[in-house]
Prior knowledge:
The structure is a homodimer of 384-residue chains. By secondary structure, the first copy, chain A, is α/β, with parallel strands linked by helices. The first copy, chain A, is built from 14 helices and 13 strands.
Amino acid sequence: MLKKSRLFTPGPTPLQPAVQEALARPILHHRTDEFRAVFKECTAGLKQFLKTDDEVLILSCSGTGGMEAALVSVLSPGDAMLALVAGNFGERWAAIGRAHGMAVTVLEAEWGDAVPAERVAEALDRDPRIRGVFVQLSESSTGAAHDVEAIARVTRGRKDTVLVVDAISGAGAMRLETAAWGVDVVVVGSQKALALPPGLAFVSMSSRAWAAAERAETPRFYFDLARERKAQAAGESAFTPAISSVVALRAALAFVASMGGVDELVRNAGVLGASTRAAAQALGLPLVAPRAHGDALTALYAPSGVESGAIVKALKAEFASTVAGGQGKLKGQILRIAHLGYYDATDILGLLATLEIVLRRLGHRFDLGAGLAAAEAEYLRLTP
Amino acid sequence: MLKKSRLFTPGPTPLQPAVQEALARPILHHRTDEFRAVFKECTAGLKQFLKTDDEVLILSCSGTGGMEAALVSVLSPGDAMLALVAGNFGERWAAIGRAHGMAVTVLEAEWGDAVPAERVAEALDRDPRIRGVFVQLSESSTGAAHDVEAIARVTRGRKDTVLVVDAISGAGAMRLETAAWGVDVVVVGSQKALALPPGLAFVSMSSRAWAAAERAETPRFYFDLARERKAQAAGESAFTPAISSVVALRAALAFVASMGGVDELVRNAGVLGASTRAAAQALGLPLVAPRAHGDALTALYAPSGVESGAIVKALKAEFASTVAGGQGKLKGQILRIAHLGYYDATDILGLLATLEIVLRRLGHRFDLGAGLAAAEAEYLRLTP
């Protein structure tokens, strides 16, 4: 049987065709007016994407590089910081902080849950020296979402504490009102909702964040955001940018605009996520994050008696579809299906049908078509 | 909502990615050893694709051009010919014959049926002057298939009558044993099972067909297959070929070989077709060709109370999926879903799920998921 390779992983996500076309073009030189114009279009588009008038800087690195750039730019060694850890990526905030000598306090949630804003308020009351709160909008290892709006209500009144949000996989898949909520720093990666290859990170910085950056003494060079701020105001990056990726970013942002803007992309992921959750319930696959789920991805336990790894392998072997398995302590227990980025209903419904076929082959008992019936009904309910 | 443009039409079909890559390469010159090597690889691959040792000529024209080239090469003006007409494309054989002054006898089948081999035998017995029998393997306007194997049993014993098969949409989607069955001329188009853009046609010619070509006096120049035969033996075409398309053809043939050959591509279409027919039955959409269906495509009547044009429009508007409507006398009455070429189970199951959503919106009453349940069950039955 013919099989098309398809990624349903929460990054990298499938490339948008206009992105592919842009990547295939002859390269520009980056110290030219032509490229500066592209760069400026991109930073303007990223502001709309993140709903902020703050500067959004374009860095040539992965999302983790963006996280590190954000952290070293707002803290000094020895500074107290709060890391909200609800999964594998939350642990990364703590690890980056420790690598740079910060005094890291961890607020942990059970994997599948999120850390509530009240616990953040309590922690900040307990230790007023905390200079930064670091959190994921979407925790990709569990599919859980933090209530960044509520957490920002806690942080925005404390003038010496900035809120730094890893929205690498959340931005463009879930609501994020950077300016309206008062989020100080947002980090995004290119290979997520924007449907680009990995290689670019985007960091927005509020005036509070820039004030923190002026004070921050953590040694930094490539990730010196103040240096980038100056260069990028003129449409250049301080160091050689990933030129083709920037040209492709312009195409990606134009695609989002053509859809009706980021809200429509968020709505798309919301409908696909809800349809997937409905199918999962009908098929007896428990959600990993039933109370705190986001829409960037859906993480599911295998039904009893079936190995999740066997499902992942069978989808790949029989249909060439790649879903993600578990990370960290959920390794081997779950599967994760992405909704962020360039997916449409036909993609997700097709995947769910092949998931039914695979589950049937693995001996799971359910009515064939039950998951599709539930997913279609949910789709119809949400798109009247 | 995000929508990806998808073609489910029986030509053009989606491009295979290696074809897209090949088309994007810098162009070669066609009077070079490099291109001659590509050309020869293609003719060798086409022989495997059509299961014959006969020469297969590559023409730069659409499938209709290939049909005309075949007809003018084996008949002289005034010659008697038999056109088997089971739909829109059968009528084309008659029209081309009349345009060149042939004495055309039409054997008609109801649309949705095929002309049986016995009627061909009777017609040839009745009129021994008939020099050519012209037929479609797959009649794309109805989804019906002719029993070319049985028809070839009738023609291959009559030394002055050649069998010319339009396999434009049938080859690579349905069984075709050119040599073993004794088919004299086969015509194929590039934009069908081979997943190339339109622009190339392929014509295989048996020794009986070449003998007819020597006698044939129909005026011809661009479509002079004897001239092409001579040029193509040396890896060149008589006139400037569609160079990039030929380079892409090599990639397309390599893809078919990597799947396990044309039989596997045929099996793929067979499973997708059977799954689609199972879904159609479960959803109450009558087949246009219930007795004579092929696997290149499935043609369906709308359920009672629903306009087929409304289904076609809604699939396009809501999901950006293009299925074909009806042609000729079936215009406005049916929809046609392609299986030939670069489609996999995820594609077809995804389309069927969106078809359910659209049917529900249009007021058709059925159990959501019923079509998917039937399609998945049929898929499981056929791929144990």
